[in-house]
């Protein structure tokens, strides 16, 4: 062993990532390319999906490909489906992946670069998941924070009414407005309601339906992936997928994927309680497996050196520019999004997490985490069931 860290699994943007799936789904439906000058949808069909009259995307929060493979016996239907694997994107976290699925763009272009991000030019964090700012701050406009056109707006222009079937509590939230602009929202809280909602939305001659299930991820955070409770949720997801497949009318395709995988933490490092990691730091953003670190003015070089020393053998620690140049967020990062990225980014590759317990106390109590560029977190399944 030479002591060198492993290479990060940099997402395969532009051919085998979640960001490539939504435009491929539209292409399968015959929706014209994003390039209005193109004569067909072929240029957008990077995943080479077969034509269909109706597509249903079943998004299972936290269903990593490695996790599913480890417990294939508890998910026999999913494990029997035609499958390939995609890379989630960086960070491998819900807000980033949902926005990639909603826009067909890599993170560097849509700007949702982590769960909690600095507002450029301000000394405060914005929680992109809960869509919250510090008390007293005006609300964040979803169309300003995430201005890119969504794939649902593209579908609507082509005469398809896209629909989203998911928890009633998420309807009208800032995150929903940022990533699902243009959908018909169908509130559905139980499995039965979601299956019924999908069936109704697939009844037309052409349909684009997304259905979401989040309990697998929530269970993994609380008690760990692979736990008895998590396995019960996996069985429920498998049953739901089978029931969704049964609702498919002729000429349809069901695709099952996830926003990220998960690891269970073995070691917890509290950066805010570690002087060598807290000195010179203004704000701790991101999350425990993809920590954006915003430094005091002029402190970035010293903070970067300290973090590299403390986290040697445990995490990739790079400057903002190094992360961008390495393609972590995609081939390009828009200039206006650069300030959202930490002055340095710390990404564990062992089973450790980097906490900021004073700022993010709920996160500190978790068992399961995600965000990094390990196979367990990056690889997500793309399973297909077709009635074409």
UniProtKB/TrEMBL annotation:
Enumerate the Pfam families for this protein. Answer: Phosphodiest (PF01663)
Signal peptide location? none
- What Gene3D superfamilies does the annotation carry? Alkaline Phosphatase, subunit A (3.40.720.10)
The portions of this protein that span the membrane are none
Q: Which InterPro entries match?
A: Alkaline_phosphatase_core_sf (IPR017850), Phosphodiest/P_Trfase (IPR002591)
> PANTHER family, per this entry?
BIS(5'-ADENOSYL)-TRIPHOSPHATASE, ECTONUCLEOTIDE PYROPHOSPHATASE/PHOSPHODIESTERASE
User: Which protein, by its recorded name, is this?
Assistant: Alkaline phosphatase family protein
């Amino acid at each position: 062993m030479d002591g060198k860290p492993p290479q990060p699994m940099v997402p395969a943007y532009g051919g085998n990532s979640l960001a490539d799936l939504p435009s491929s789904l539209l292409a399968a439906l015959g929706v014209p390319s994003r390039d209005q000058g193109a004569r067909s949808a072929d240029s957008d069909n990077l995943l080479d999906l077969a034509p269909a009259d109706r597509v249903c995307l079943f998004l299972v929060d936290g269903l990593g490909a490695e996790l599913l493979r480890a417990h294939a016996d508890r998910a026999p239907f999913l494990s029997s489906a035609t499958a390939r694997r995609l890379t989630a994107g960086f960070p491998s976290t819900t807000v980033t992946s949902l926005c990639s699925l909603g826009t067909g763009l890599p993170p560097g272009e849509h700007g949702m670069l982590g769960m909690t991000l600095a507002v450029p030019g301000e000394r405060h964090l914005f929680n992109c998941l809960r869509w919250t700012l510090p008390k007293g701050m005006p609300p964040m406009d979803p169309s300003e924070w995430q201005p890119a056109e969504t794939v649902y707006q593209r579908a609507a222009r082509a005469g398809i009414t896209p629909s989203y079937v998911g928890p009633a509590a998420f309807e009208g939230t800032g995150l929903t407005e940022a990533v699902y602009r243009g959908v018909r929202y169908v509130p559905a809280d139980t499995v039965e309601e979601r299956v019924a909602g999908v069936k109704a939305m697939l009844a037309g001659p052409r349909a684009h339906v997304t259905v979401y299930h989040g309990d697998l991820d929530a269970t993994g955070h609380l008690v760990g992936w692979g736990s008895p409770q998590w396995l019960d949720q996996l069985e429920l997801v498998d049953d739901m997928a089978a029931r969704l497949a049964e609702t498919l009318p002729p000429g349809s395709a069901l695709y099952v994927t996830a926003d990220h995988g998960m690891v269970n933490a073995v070691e917890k490092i509290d950066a805010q309680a570690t002087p060598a990691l807290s000195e010179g730091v203004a704000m701790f953003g991101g999350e425990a497996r993809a920590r954006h670190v915003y430094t005091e003015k002029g402190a970035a070089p010293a903070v970067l050196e300290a973090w590299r020393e403390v986290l040697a053998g445990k995490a990739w620690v790079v400057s903002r520019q190094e992360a961008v140049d390495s393609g972590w967020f995609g081939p390009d990062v828009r200039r206006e999004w650069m300030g959202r990225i930490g002055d340095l980014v710390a990404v564990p590759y062992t089973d450790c997490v980097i906490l900021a317990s004073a700022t993010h106390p709920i996160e500190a109590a978790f068992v399961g985490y995600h965000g990094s560029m390990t196979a367990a977190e990056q690889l997500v399944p793309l399973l297909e069931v077709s009635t074409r």
